[in-house]
Amino acid sequence: MEKVFIKTENGKNPHAGSKARDDVDELLKQRGYRPIIVGNYEPREDRKENLFEKIQRHVTSLVNAFRLFFLLPGKSMVVMQHPMTGFVYFNWMINPLKKIKKVKLVALIHDLDSLRKLHGENQKNDELADLKLLRKCDAIICHNSKMKEYLIEEKFPEETIVSLELFDYLTPEVITAYDESKGIVIAGNLNEEKSGYLRQLKQLSKELVFELYGPNYSELPQESVHYHGSFAPDDLLEAIKGSYGLVWDGSSIGMCEGNFGEYLRYNNSHKASLYLAVGIPVIVWKESALSEFVENEGIGFSISNLYEIETKITSQNKEELIKNVAVMKEKVTNGYFLNSAMSVVEGKLEEK
User: Fold this and answer.
1) Is beta strand 244-247 parallel, antiparallel or unpaired with respect to 184-187?
2) Domain made up of 3-168+335-351: CATH architecture
């Protein structure tokens, strides 16, 4: 059985989302999968899409769907990264691909946008992608046991779902960013919608210092908050320094709330993998999907609110913590989690 994956060309501006997909592409190549490349049309982000751009986007997606029908080899195992550009048109092609070309389709989930509920009027399209297109796949790699439980509740067959546990984060070289003298790292999109809680950091103990890395930070400087700027993923690896890495979303330091905060109940935040890839222990919300994994592996700790951070830090066995993080760093930077999940998926599909 030939093994291939659908590779969508990324836009010109690298970001955390493209880093995750690029790492999957690289690891699949290492496993012997051949890329089937399709183009990608990305509308401008600085203004609303005009009619011509909308038509261009739809035409590109439609052409890609037809190209994939002819380019994907018959009786092959095909890996797609979900959600993919032009999924509405690709959804039309899945049944013909399975019936005529006998392909077996594997979906690796990056996001379930129907759970994030960020697109308002496009919520129906998100539900089409997450609940209809995915249902046609022969195997699904989801983030964790919480996301798996959600999919099972939505009547997805349990035997088709494999949990990734954690995203891998490939690095060009061994990098250690752990520095006990530095503050707590907060990396990622720092805009008010996703990271509104940053406004409230001044309410925490003055002993806590935060190191911020990412775009869209517009707050006035605070004594305990150091903003270091925005970096491309590979450059961030060299710039980042800290004693812990925080995974927290929403507008409050009291809990993770709003669409972004609630999504952490199901989502493996890619920034957790970033922190671990450079040897930094993680702090996560107690009700997040990552909480159980972090606690069980001893690679950080979970909190109900940000007020608990100072007490939790003082109670950590630092020697044991750093030892556990080093083990996890070795795994995430070498593709352990995707390779493990793909081995399970391949075993399932090759038996059929």
Assistant:
1) parallel
2) 3-Layer(aba) Sandwich (3.40)
Domain boundaries, the chain: 3-168+335-351, 184-332
Check whether 332 has a pLDDT greater than 60.
yes
- Please state whether 221 falls in left (phi above 0), alpha (psi between -120 and 50) or beta: beta
Residue 348 to residue 345: CA distance in whole angstroms: 5
For the entire predicted model, the pTM comes to: 0.93
CB contact set of 110 (below 8 Å; sequence gap of 6+): 17, 20, 21, 81, 82, 83
At the top level of CATH, the class of 184-332 is alpha beta
Q: What residues does 213 pair with on adjacent strands? A: 187
Rg (CA), the chain: 21
Q: What are the backbone dihedrals phi and psi of residue 197, each rounded to the nearest 5 degrees, phi first?
A: -60, -20
pLDDT at 146: 97
User: 8 vs 108, which has greater pLDDT?
Assistant: 108
Exposed, middle or buried: residue 63 (CB in 10 Å: 0-12, 13-18, 19+)?
middle
